[in-house]
Sequence to fold (573 residues):
Amino acid sequence: MRTGKNANDGSFTVFYRNGWAYLTVQPPAESGRPVYREEVENRMKLLEVPPVRGRTIEALIEAARGIPEPLVEWPAGRHLAAVITVHVSDDEMSAWVTVHPPKKGGAPPTPADIERQLASAGVVSGVDHNAVRNLLGGSRYGMPLLLAAGTAPINGSSRRIKYHFNTTRGKPYLEMEFGRINLKELNFIEHCKQGDLLAELLPPVAPVDGRTVLGRALPAQATTRSVSLSAGPNTRFNPDRTQLYAACDGNARLDERRRVVVEPVVKVKNVNYETGNIYFNGSVIVEGHIADGFVVQAGGDIQVGRGVGKARLQAGRSVLLKTGMNGNGEGTLQCAGDLFARYLESCSVTCRGNAFVEEAIMQSEVTVRKHCVLSGRRSEIIAGSLIVGGSLWCRKLGNFNEANTRIALGVPPEVLLEYRAAKGSLEDKYEQLNQSEEQLHKLERAMSDGHDDERVRQAARELEESLPQLSAEINELRHKVPQLRDQLQAARESMLVVEDTIFPGTVISFARQEYHVPDKGARKTILRVGERGLIESGFDIRNKPTLTFEPPEPSEASKPPTAPEPPKGPPAG
Fold:
């Protein structure tokens, strides 16, 4: 390109485009200098453009229309052009274009150039023409940009259900990679008012075929599966049974049969002598604290805003303690769902779901059917006993004082507890048998020494009569204990993850395999079950393990007995 010494001078450009050399001539202003033929010819020689008759160049200069004019065929100028590459994804659902800038003497690419290259790559569907123009306008050379996208098929359906409340609240938080759980933001209770729309049947959806960027059709599938709204307690249908409304104020949720139910909610400030014990079939919200000695028993969820002391909590689903529980050795907590708490101290806990504790478990007896995860800054377990059917994740186990901390992992708690109970009962029966035989021996010796009165003979007879029954019970337990011991098989997927330290004084077992903590403790440890024993590896914060299995539910025979029916009386609160 040549430009005059001032803005009034004429100018020209010689460039390559699509196999031709083009000349663009801009006319001069009134006082400007025109373009000369020799300048154009010198530029052509520099670019190695084939020669052209002088009259042709002079005619174009004289016309000076300011638009590209074809000058001569120039196939050899192809090396100056912009390079446009097209990449189509393996599933043919996207096409990416990368444009490399032209060399000096090559024309900048046009939208038509890009679309022509897309077409030559077979891309005929889903081209975003605005994106093509924006690519050139922004001069984003060298960057792959998405310029075409396929259309996924829309499968048809007869009808669909749209829920107007959160149906997944209270789900396990394992997918959070054990980041900190904000207990203040959790809420198991979703309030609704009488007359609120809870769910509705949406119209059928007709199947729509999709198409790849290469034009290949993606057939949509039509489903004949029918769906229907299931109404549970305290809900009502509209006349055509396509919408479901709340019939009272309460907590909206899906029950085990996928029915929409609204359960009344008891909400109190505190549980103390003003309210008395609470026995309720629905869910219970305690905004404040639960005083020592009181009972909260709910068929649904229990949510407590402040502390829990020497109280008894029993929930048919989940429990959320936004602070925690200090039972002073007498507090108990049972829940059939998940447990969320900031801390647990000096209490007895049975959780049939997952337990998520933010800071600490101290001097407590805790049984968790699935996983137990401590995710706060402290995340420590000190003293007491934990039985976890799945995996355990924390920062510290034990403390500097070598507090006796016992951890059992990977075995369904009900199986391990039954084995321990049977083994303890066998030991007690043996002790009882030894004492009875020793006492009988003393009585027989007393009778042989002349103390043969009726009371002594009666005591001896009672002991003799009890021995066969005691021996039979011992024989039964001697067969039962090995059978239960054989059932103690730790799940291969279960593991212990300790991000910081395992202190001496901690006993860790996976079924019958025990991990012996070194005298100096262990740092950043992961324990798993292997074919020939426990596998120990290091914990790396950059490569965290994941909990990938769900511990199986126990058989009906091994499930604990259901909670007793609450006593009849006036409504709580």
Observations:
- The first strand starts at residue 2 and ends at 3.
